[in-house]
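Why should sequence recovery work at all? Because a backbone constrains its sequence more than one might expect. Tight turns favour small or flexible residues, buried strands favour hydrophobic ones, and helices have their own preferences. The token representation captures these environments compactly. In the example below, the structure is given first.
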């Protein structure tokens, strides 16, 4: 079967998701070509990507990094046009010549380009969970109005999408619940009272996945799973009470769907993000991803632990915040996301202890009671207010 080549924009091309996306694209030069790349500060890797993939545009977050990349590209006679700044990132995300946008910018900073891609009807591959956590219904309304196709790239949400009925109209009537699996991170068996002494290096050492520092800390606190619960609610339209989390240390079953007849459909694979990336790029077809195949003869054990067993609620107190904010006023999910970004940055900078991340998040939720946001400007203002409240909590803890 002959396919029209898709022009792909990779937002956050130098991060782990971006690098994996480019690896999949490189395996299928007949199916995909790189139209634009964006990055924050990794000039050397961005230059190497420009040399290999020859994108039409390369965008850096700041003028300083943009000018440096521009000079490097000119010295090599590369025809890539180098731009910089938030408006340029939004421009390539919504460019009329682009077909597919991989949204892999970490944090709330990725919301504006995601909205630009949604408004212009792109196939939007969502690896940035914050776009939904922060944008909520406003983001979903933009996807519908723009005629965009929204496909989840998080391994858990991709697994759910692959396990659901093909027709979304059947989801509410046929599905009893969705079950997100969690590895438990590096501290699954560690005594909760010792977590105050955790170092950033320990928190970033995930046992199964290779990820950036922020998401690695989120995995260690289980806040990544709290954000995924919120994202699942918006993606699949099920009531929060129909979303569960179970610990599965091996990260082989990426998530499951339980139907009303109590049968369960699960999606399995090796812990390699190239699997869901390849599925998102090629959907509704499938292409090789480069991920290793499962060797069932080598799997001696697949185990599960309930979140309410033993001392997991003490070890991962932040997980319960997901259902709390979903039951609160619209916009509260954005407050939690902003607080967590600030708290994790403070922990990585050694300004607060690991166990204080949750306390910063909880105090910020108590301090900021939002009005329902009606625009991107409202969301950005709420994000800024929440960050200020979180910073105030951090200063109290570190005083």
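From this structural description, the recovered sequence reads:
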């Amino acid at each position: 079967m002959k396919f029209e080549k898709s022009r792909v924009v990779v937002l956050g091309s130098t991060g782990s998701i971006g690098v994996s996306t480019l690896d999949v694209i490189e395996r299928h030069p007949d199916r995909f070509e790189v139209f634009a790349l964006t990055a924050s500060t990794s000039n050397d890797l961005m230059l190497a990507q420009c040399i290999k993939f020859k994108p039409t545009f390369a965008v850096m977050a700041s003028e300083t990094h943009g000018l440096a990349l521009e000079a490097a590209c000119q010295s090599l006679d590369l025809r890539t046009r180098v731009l910089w700044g938030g408006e340029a990132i939004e421009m390539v995300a919504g460019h009329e010549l682009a077909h597919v946008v991989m949204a892999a910018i970490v944090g709330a900073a990725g919301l504006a380009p995601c909205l630009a891609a949604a408004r212009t009807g792109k196939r939007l591959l969502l690896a940035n969970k914050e776009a939904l956590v922060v944008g909520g219904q406003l983001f979903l309304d933009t996807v519908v109005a723009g005629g965009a196709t929204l496909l989840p790239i998080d391994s858990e949400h991709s697994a759910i999408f692959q396990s659901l009925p093909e027709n979304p109209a059947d989801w509410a009537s046929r599905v009893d619940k969705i079950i997100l699996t969690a590895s438990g991170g590096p501290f699954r068996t560690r005594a909760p009272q010792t977590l105050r002494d955790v170092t950033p290096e320990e928190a970033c050492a995930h046992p199964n996945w290779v990820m950036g520092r922020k998401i690695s800390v989120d995995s260690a606190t289980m806040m990544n799973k709290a954000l995924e619960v919120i994202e699942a609610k918006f993606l699949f339209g099920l009531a929060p009470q129909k979303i569960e989390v179970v610990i599965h240390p091996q990260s082989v079953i990426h998530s499951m769907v339980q139907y009303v007849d109590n049968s369960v459909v699960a999606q399995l694979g090796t812990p390699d993000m190239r699997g869901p990336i390849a599925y998102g790029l090629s959907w509704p077809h499938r292409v090789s991803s480069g991920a290793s195949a499962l060797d069932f003869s080598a799997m001696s054990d697949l185990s599960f632990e309930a979140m309410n067993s033993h001392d997991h609620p003490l070890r991962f107190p932040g997980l319960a915040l997901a259902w709390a904010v979903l039951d609160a006023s619209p916009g509260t999910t954005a407050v939690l996301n902003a607080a967590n970004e600030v708290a994790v940055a403070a922990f990585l900078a050694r300004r607060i202890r690991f166990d204080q991340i949750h306390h910063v998040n909880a105090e910020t939720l108590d301090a900021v009671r939002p009005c329902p946001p009606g625009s991107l400007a409202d969301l950005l203002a709420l994000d800024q207010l929440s960050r200020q409240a979180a910073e105030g909590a951090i200063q109290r803890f570190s005083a």
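A few observations help interpret the result. Residues 123 and 149 are 5 Å apart (CA to CA).
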